[in-house]
Specification:
single chain; alpha+beta; DNA polymerase, domain 1; hpI Integrase, Chain A; 15 helices; 13 strands
Length: 411
């Protein structure tokens, strides 16, 4: 039963709510509805359809409750709050300044449909599922999930309650950003990544009618210091590759050769099949069939990379099967990025190099490519799988050690 807090009519309205089917919404949208006597003009129809794919005019309703309130003269906006399955906590009798009519609400005569406010966690999970359906990588989704969890923890610690989507205001986002800068002393790149995740989530939630506008839209990111991404120096790269070659493991040698000599992402590396590699006497290439944003590209291979791959394919037990995974471990296909991280840590330790992640090798490839081909940003973008030249502009920034050397020459 749903309490309206409207005097003696609360029980009758609650009974009406339980009787309202999906068809009643369609009738009301069509301009019809049930015929009522004058004394019953303030009837309320409530329909809940959790996890339903049933269609009502204008859109699909998935896991939301829909409230329809009819009055003879004025329109009353009802804002429901749904925390869990069919758990309705309250309503507002009259429109107030903090209430809103979503852009996708539909109105016919004196009938208005308001989409229920979904709790932060439920909306977050729906958004992440939406991103998965769009083909976003698990790594990206995991980063977004961590960012939203960070915001939710901060909000609850600050306001003693979980975040509620329609209640969020730009000040909340700005205060969260300031907390990361001053209290946590997080790096600008980390803060900006979290802000991007929250802003994209809220933009999606706004489009779904969960809140009015995007409170993060006006909050600017922190301008980071213009520096080239971390990459290995020529000296450290030679020491690292020497340690890999000294292992005599053809698989590891081939993997490191692709990371340093072709600039592949670790996810792209691990998804390769045997048939994605083409080797010739004087040329070769690797096909990335599902890169970031579902990108497809072909990357040419240098002589040293072709040699390392040929040695591995000779030892590969399924080299004749083009659909076989390119990388195999002791327990089957090698698909976990943590295995690559352990591999990097092992050889970095042997080489006496500070530990680094696989993306450092991608940055190292990009830095070395531009050093050998100054100004070829378009070629670098094609090799790395970037659609925008702005993304590769970071590799034109001088490194700190380069600036230090130039200043020494000035002095």
């Amino acid at each position: 039963m749903i309490e309206r807090r409207r005097g003696s009519r609360s029980e009758r309205r609650a009974d009406d709510n339980e009787k309202a089917p999906h068809s009643s919404m369609r009738g009301l949208f069509a301009g019809g509805g049930e015929e009522r006597e004058e004394g019953e003009a303030n009837g309320c129809h409530l329909a809940t359809c959790p996890h339903s794919d049933r269609e009502t005019p204008g859109r699909q309703w998935r896991g939301w409750s829909i409230a329809i309130w009819s009055q003879s003269s004025n329109i009353t906006v009802i804002m429901w709050r749904m925390i869990a399955k069919n758990a309705i906590l309250g309503a507002s009798k009259r429109p107030k300044t903090h209430l809103f009519q979503p852009a996708n609400a539909r109105k016919s005569g004196n009938i208005i449909v308001i989409i229920v406010e979904t709790d932060f966690t439920t909306a977050k999970n729906q958004w992440l599922a939406h991103l998965e359906a769009q083909g976003k990588s698990p790594h990206t989704r995991a980063a977004y999930r961590r960012a939203l969890a960070h915001f939710a923890r901060w909000y609850e610690a600050t306001y003693d309650q979980p975040p509620v989507l329609p209640d969020l205001i730009p000040r909340d986002i700005a205060d969260w950003q300031a907390h990361q800068q001053t209290s946590e002393k997080a790096r600008p790149a980390t803060i900006n990544q979290r802000l991007t995740a929250l802003s994209r989530f809220l933009a999606w939630a706004n489009g779904q009618g969960f809140l009015a506008g995007n409170p993060a839209a006006g909050v600017s990111g922190i301008r980071p210091e213009a520096r080239q991404p971390k990459s290995l120096t020529d000296r450290d790269l030679r020491r690292f590759l020497r340690a890999v070659d000294a292992s005599g493991n053809p698989r590891d040698i081939a993997m490191m050769a692709l990371l340093t000599g072709a600039g592949l992402r670790v996810s792209e590396l691990l998804s390769l099949k045997v048939g994605d590699v083409t080797l010739g006497e004087r040329s070769g290439q690797v096909v990335v069939r599902r890169g970031k944003h579902r990108g497809y590209r072909t990357v040419p291979l240098t002589a040293s990379v072709r040699k390392a791959l040929a040695a591995w394919l000779e030892a590969h037990p399924q080299a004749g099967d083009p659909d076989a995974p390119l990388w195999l471990g002791q327990r089957g296909p090698l698909t976990d990025r943590s295995a690559v991280n352990r591999m990097l840590a092992k050889y970095a330790r042997r080489a006496g190099v500070k530990p680094f992640g696989p993306h450092v090798l991608r940055h190292t490839f990009a830095t070395r490519y531009l050093a050998a081909n100054p100004g070829d940003l378009r070629g670098l973008a094609a090799l790395l799988g970037h659609s925008s030249l702005n993304t590769v502009m970071i590799y034109t920034e001088p490194r700190l050690e380069d600036l230090a050397g130039r200043m020494e020459r000035v002095g």
